[in-house]
């Protein structure tokens, strides 16, 4: 019988006490993959996943215009991320303007 690699890694991460860190890295990577398609083609040049905590993804943005781009696409991003993860892992997306990307 085949066991998906994600289940093996999840179990190992739980035993090592790093499950939250692995989940956060996975969520941030999902944003990187989806942002160019859902926010804007140049999204990764102006935004980046800053951190994930308590089912909230915080996205660093270059300026308020990019914060607005993320905000207007928030529902679509949340839906796509949760669908690709197969569970409701992200309930909210928050933006924060950073000095440099």
Structure characterization notes:
The structure is a single chain. The chain has one domain: GMP Synthetase, Chain A, domain 3, CATH 3.30.300. The model has no long low-confidence stretch (mean pLDDT 91). The protein has helices at residues 5-16, 19-38, 43-46, 64-72, 74-85, and strands spanning 47-53, 56-61, 92-97. The longest helix is centred in the first third of the chain and has 20 residues, at 19-38. With 101 residues, the chain is α+β, with helices and mostly antiparallel strands. It starts with a helix and ends with a strand. The protein has a 3-stranded mixed beta sheet. It is built from 5 helices and 3 strands; from the N terminus they run αααββααβ.
